[in-house]
Amino acid sequence: MDKEHIKGAADKVSGAAKEAAGKVTGNEKLEAEGKFDKAKGEVRQGVGDVKDAIKKADKPN
């Protein structure tokens, strides 16, 4: 696991909290920010997966 995975997970948690807070308070902007942060977290985790795959491919068997 690299830093992209960690950052991605943090973004997803933060985004979920923002989204939930936005729904509860009726704040559409906060809810949208939360959805964006969650999506950003998914992308970061995907980048981490690609980096992991590259590292594995570079290692000799």
- The pLDDT mean sits at 93
Q: Report how far apart the termini are.
A: 20 Å
Radius of gyration equals 15 Å
Q: Low-confidence spans: pLDDT under 50, at least 5 residues? A: none
Number of domains: 1
Order of helices and strands, N to C?
HH
Structural features, described:
This protein has 61 residues and is mostly helical. The protein has one domain. Helices cover 89% and strands 0% of the residues. It is built from two helices and no strands. Helix 1 packs antiparallel against helix 2. The mean pLDDT is 93.
Summary keywords:
61 residues; mainly alpha; 0% strand
What's the helix and strand layout?
Elements: H1 3-25, H2 28-58
Helix pairs in contact: 1-2
Summary of the model, kept short:
With 61 residues, this protein is mainly alpha-helical. Helix content is 89%, strand content 0%. The mean pLDDT is 93.
